[in-house]
Amino acid sequence: MKSRRQLLIATSSEGKRSELRQLLSALPISLFDLRDFPAVERIAETGNTFVENASLKALGYATQTGLLTVADDSGLEVDALGGAPGVRSARYAGEATSDSERIEALLVALSFVDESKRSARFVSAVVIADSNREILNVSVGRCEGRIALARLGTGGFGYDPVFIPSGYDLTFAELKPEIKNQISHRAIALSATREYLQNLTAASAAG
Ligand code: IMP
After folding, report:
1. Ligand 1 atom closest to Cα of 11?
2. Low-confidence ranges of the chain (pLDDT < 50)
């Protein structure tokens, strides 16, 4: 009998990890995450784009662990701020700050920006790499919306309490996780990733 494929979900963000696990759960693949490899060295996000950073993380963790690896790099682009915080979303209020401090910094930066001019999008780049330092698949998802005037809701993670996706009047933190997992940037990027992994597992089962 062939052994099941193994896939490392390479993120140390608890929020991302649980969404990625949920979105990949239907595949016939055994899922691991970075808690299973406590000795791995953290990969610095030194790229200038989401795809560059996701590629650095997927390659870095695949080489260290020997596992097929999926990594996500994501962030929020706010039009009134010229696309900031963008790839710097995790460091928007400085290194080692909390989600709450980053949200505060964003609300302060937008305090004089009218409701009609607070358009924004979440972007997620998802990259799969293997331990031969090969990038196997790249997909990008976007979710358009706007930044709320104040934080609302307790679900999700990161900037969820201030992001209202287009077509809704509630923030990601107020919407049910099932809804976020249908419409989010990560869900959109992951649908292409899932298709790639499905073909890969079907090909190895046939071979
Ligand atoms: P990185 O991908 O590790 O560089 O971090 C991305 C930053 O964007 C972090 O501050 C996350 O909290 C935030 N972020 C990414 N995806 C989401 C999301 O789905 N909801 C809320 N915040 C997010």
Report:
1. 3
2. none
Q: How many residues does the chain have?
A: 207
* CATH (domain of 158): 3.90.950.10
State the pTM of this model. 0.96
Nearest to residue 171, comparing CAs of 84, 81, 76, 82? Answer: 76
Domain extent at residue 60: 5-206
Q: Tens of pLDDT along 87-135?
A: 999 999 998 999 999 999 999 999 999 999 999 999 999 999 999 999 9
Pairing mode of beta strands 5-9, 29-33: parallel
Residue nearest (by alpha carbon) to ligand 1 atom 7: 90
Count up the domains in the chain and report the number: 1
Does residue 74 line the site of ligand 1, with CB under 6 A? yes
